[in-house]
Design a protein that fits this description.
Shape: globular
Strand order of the largest sheet: 2-1-3-4-5
Structural class: alpha/beta
Number of domains: 1
Helix content: 25-40%
Strand content: 5-15%
Order of helices and strands: EHEHHEHEHEH
CATH superfamily: Flavodoxin domain
Radius of gyration: 17 Å
CATH architecture: 3-Layer(aba) Sandwich
Number of helices: 6
CATH class: Alpha Beta
Number of strands: 5
Length: about 210
């Protein structure tokens, strides 16, 4: 089994990366392969609402010049996915948000590619805004019908200078517990294949409230 984690911070080895390393360390102890993909230092356009991914249904976004389609395939082949971001004005960092908007729309219109995979969110913050950002990341996981492990608190860790989050003893425990619970849930899903029949995917119903 494998987990791919997306680092939405502009800093390659800042506090978001340190938080991910805490989680992935527990996954690796459980025998699960991990990969951290650095998203936050890239130039990524937001979704242009062109609708071509809906028309083509080829698991690709038509916008050129970035790695979004490569990352979509990493998500497709992974058993678990971690979304992580620093906090920018109580929200997801812009580059990460652009990636998630495009990637999750593509995966959604291609037969729900991420459905029933295990997904978790991780946030690193200096002071405030961590929980709103955590909830925003979770929106993507919930909409994709993914399975979400919990920790013993919200998955937010605090620090300013790179590596300072390692001094947040409660935050470190939160990340450690999340890693253990994620590994456990992934193994439950894996062992349930062929034994417990998953519910069939329903075609999405859309309702416009103006009529």
């Amino acid at each position: 089994m494998k987990v791919v984690a997306f680092n939405g911070s502009p800093n390659k080895e800042g506090n978001t990366w340190h938080a991910l390393k805490m989680v992935t360390a527990e996954l690796e102890l459980a025998g699960i392969e991990t990969e951290i993909v650095h998203v936050g230092n890239k130039t990524i356009r937001g979704c242009s609402a062109c609708g071509m991914c809906v028309k083509n249904r080829n698991e690709k976004c038509v916008l050129p010049g970035d790695d979004v389609n490569e990352w979509i395939q990493k998500m497709k082949t992974a058993d678990g996915i971690i979304l992580s971001s620093p906090v920018h004005y109580s929200a997801i960092a812009g580059t990460m948000k652009s990636f998630l908007d495009r990637a999750f729309f593509v995966t959604g219109v291609n037969d729900g590619m991420l459905r029933h995979k295990v997904g978790a969110s991780v946030v690193a913050v200096r002071r405030s805004g961590g929980v709103p950002t955590f909830e925003q990341l979770n929106n993507f996981i919930n909409y994709a019908e993914m399975l979400m492990p919990a920790s013993n608190y919200w998955n937010v860790i605090h620090g300013r200078s790179p590596g300072e989050v390692t001094q947040d003893t409660e935050g470190v425990q939160i990340m450690r517990v999340l890693g253990k619970n994620m590994a456990w849930l992934m193994k439950l899903v894996e062992h349930g294949k062929g034994t417990v029949t998953p519910p069939p995917r329903e075609v999405k119903t859309y309702m416009n409230f103006i009529h």
